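Re: [ENG-882] Designed sequences occasionally contain unexpected residues at chain ends

Forwarding the minimal case from QA. C-alpha cells:
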C-alpha cells in the first residue's frame, strides 16, 4: 500500500509555465511514476499545447476526491488511479463518465481492459513467474511448475494474500484463464484453490511487499516465485540469472481519470489524448518497464525491451486480467480465510511499524527464510504484516 503523504507538492512539475496559456493539475503516485510521467507526458504536453501541467502526488486515497465531488469546482483535473479506486470512484460519482468521442485515439488501439466507463489506461503492470536460472537444471514454464517439487526442488515464494495467490493456484490446477473467476466465485472453487495450496504449503516462503520476490531470489532463498515484472526488469541487468516465464501471467492497468466538477475537462481530455498516443507511451515505457496500453507503441520500442513488457503480444496473449469487481465483492471473505490458513509472519525486532496484527493465539510464526519459529511468551504482541500491493 502506498504510504506517502497525501497531496505532497512535487518539484517535478512541467516546464514552460511562463508562456503557458492555462494550467492543469495532474495527480500521480509520486516517486518513479511521477518522474517518468513528467518526462514522457507533462513537459512534452506543455511544449505542444502551451498548457502547463502542475504535478502533485497523493497516496491513492479518495478523501480529497469525495470533498471535491461535493464542491462547485475541483482543484485537480486529471488523476492516476488503480483499478479498485477507479471502479469504486466511478460508482460513487467521484469521476467523470468519459465521452470517448473527445479522446483522439481509436478504442481498437488499446489493449483489453485498458478502457472503462471512467478511465483510460496509462500502463499495464504484471505478475509473472520469476526464477533463478542458476539454481534450476531446466526452466519452469508455467504456474504448475511451482507445484512440481521433484523437478524443481527448493523453496518457492508466494504472495501472502488471497488475491493473486488463489488465481495462480487455480491456473496451476488446470482451470482455463477465462474460467478462473467463475470457479473462484463458488465455494467448491475456493476449496479447490486451498487444496492445491495445501500441497506446497510447507515449501513456501511468503512475501508481502513488491521488492521481496527479486530480493529473495537474489540472496538464494527461493528458486522461483510470482513477482511484479517491473521490479525484475530493474534487476536483470545486474543479475542475469533472474528470468521470467510469462505463461498465463496476471495483469492490470493504472488509469487516467477526470475528477468530478473540474472546470478544465476540455484540457483534461486533451491531455489524456496526448498521453495515449503511441509515440508518447513509447517514451514512458523507456523510462519504466510498464506495458503501453496503446498497442501502436510496442513496434516503436526496441524489440528486446518490448519483449519484457506486460502488454507485448506474446506476453498478453494468454494472460489473466485481474478482475477488480470480483475482488471488491469477494475480497474480504477470501482474505479472512487465507489469513487464517497461512502461517503468521514473525515480527521483526526492529520494526516500528504501527500497521501490525496480533498473532491471534498462534504458537508458531514463519520468518523470512521460511523457518517456523515458536512464539515465545515474551515475544512482541504483534507481527508486522503488510498486505503488499503492487508498488511503483
Amino acid at each position: 500500500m502506498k504510504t506517502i503523504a497525501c497531496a505532497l507538492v512535487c518539484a517535478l512539475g512541467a516546464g514552460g509555465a511562463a508562456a503557458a496559456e492555462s494550467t492543469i493539475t495532474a495527480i500521480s503516485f509520486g516517486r518513479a511514476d511521477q518522474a517518468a510521467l513528467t518526462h514522457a507526458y507533462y513537459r512534452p504536453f506543455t511544449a505542444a499545447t502551451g498548457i502547463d501541467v502542475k504535478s502533485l502526488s497523493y497516496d491513492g486515497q479518495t478523501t480529497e476526491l469525495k470533498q471535491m465531488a461535493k464542491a462547485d469546482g475541483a482543484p485537480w483535473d486529471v488523476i492516476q488511479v488503480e483499478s479498485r479506486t477507479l471502479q469504486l470512484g466511478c460508482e460513487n460519482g467521484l469521476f467523470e463518465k468519459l465521452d470517448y468521442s473527445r479522446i483522439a485515439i481509436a478504442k481498437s488501439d488499446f489493449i483489453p481492459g485498458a478502457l472503462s466507463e471512467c478511465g483510460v489506461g496509462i500502463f499495464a503492470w504484471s505478475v509473472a513467474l520469476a526464477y533463478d536460472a542458476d539454481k534450476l537444471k531446466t526452466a519452469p514454464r508455467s504456474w504448475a511448475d511451482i507445484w512440481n517439487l521433484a523437478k524443481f526442488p527448493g523453496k518457492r515464494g508466494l504472495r501472502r494474500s488471497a488475491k493473486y495467490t488463489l488465481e495462480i493456484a487455480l491456473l496451476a490446477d488446470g482451470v482455463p484463464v477465462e474460467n478462473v473467476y467463475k470457479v473462484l466465485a463458488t465455494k467448491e472453487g475456493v476449496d479447490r484453490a486451498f487444496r492445491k495450496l495445501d500441497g506446497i504449503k510447507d515449501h513456501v516462503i511468503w512475501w508481502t511487499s513488491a521488492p521481496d520476490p527479486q530480493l529473495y531470489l537474489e540472496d538464494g532463498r527461493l528458486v522461483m516465485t510470482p513477482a511484479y515484472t517491473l521490479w525484475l526488469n530493474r534487476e536483470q541487468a545486474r543479475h542475469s540469472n533472474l528470468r521470467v516465464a510469462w505463461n498465463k501471467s496476471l495483469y492490470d492497468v493504472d488509469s487516467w481519470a477526470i475528477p468530478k466538477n473540474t472546470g478544465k475537462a476540455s484540457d483534461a481530455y486533451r491531455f489524456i489524448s496526448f498521453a495515449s498516443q503511441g509515440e508518447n507511451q513509447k517514451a514512458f515505457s523507456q523510462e519504466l518497464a510498464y506495458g503501453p496500453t496503446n498497442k501502436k507503441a510496442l513496434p516503436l520500442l526496441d524489440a528486446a525491451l518490448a519483449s519484457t513488457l506486460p502488454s507485448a503480444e506474446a506476453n498478453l496473449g494468454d494472460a489473466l486480467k485481474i478482475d477488480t469487481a470480483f475482488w471488491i465483492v469477494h475480497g474480504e471473505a477470501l482474505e479472512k480465510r487465507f489469513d487464517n490458513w497461512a502461517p503468521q509472519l514473525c515480527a521483526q525486532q526492529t520494526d516500528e511499524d504501527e500497521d501490525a496484527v496480533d498473532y491471534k493465539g498462534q504458537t508458531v510464526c514463519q520468518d523470512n527464510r521460511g523457518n517456523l519459529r515458536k512464539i515465545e511468551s515474551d515475544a512482541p504482541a504483534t507481527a508486522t504484516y503488510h498486505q503488499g500491493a503492487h508498488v511503483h
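QA comment: On inspection the terminal residues look reasonable. The chain has three domains: 8-124+253-318, 125-251, 343-392. Proposing we downgrade this to a documentation issue.
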